[in-house]
Amino acid sequence: MTLHDDAVRVLKDWTAPDAPDGAQEQLRLDYLDHLVSHRDGLWRSCLPAHLTASAVVVDPVQGRVLLTLHPKVGRWLQMGGHCEPEDGTLAAAALREATEESGIPGLRLLGDGGGGPIPVRLDRHRVRCTGRGRPENVHLDVQYVALAPAGAEASISEESLDLRWFGYGALPELTDRSVRELVALARRTTG
Predict the structure, then answer these.
(1) Which of 149, 160, 184, 189 is buried most deeply by CB count within 10 Å?
(2) What is the value of pTM for the model shown?
(3) In this protein, which residues make up the domain named Nudix hydrolase (predicted)?
């Protein structure tokens, strides 16, 4: 199975969280349409949009979340980024990114209790990942929750300006609505 096939399977099987506006279901359908139209729809080179994978790292025992201060965006975000050829699945891409950017070995993606990791949310946002002076493009982000092992200590990577744990109720000012919604969902999901 290719990464493209896995992404189609994940999005076909995923049940969007109930929301009065149906926004998550519409994103799911939009992502699937993108993949049908673009066999290269998971790669950075696919413009004007491509899928990405991310994971919010949480420590539910301590009631905290690990966020990275992104150098290009200037905001506190979850770990994540572009899919790579060695990623066999979207979940593997999210876990790789979370591990690389957090420096925490032994992260585990939240699953459904039997079938492996499942996304918790989708987010579409405009970015400038192709370089300065280039037009903006769109990330179609598939978001997971990563559970940190007990006593996890983060280690900043070259991809971050800063890396810190925050209490669920004490997120920094420089977080956007998407990150706040993802953290709230992770908190509800992990108890």
Answers:
(1) 160
(2) 0.94
(3) 48-188
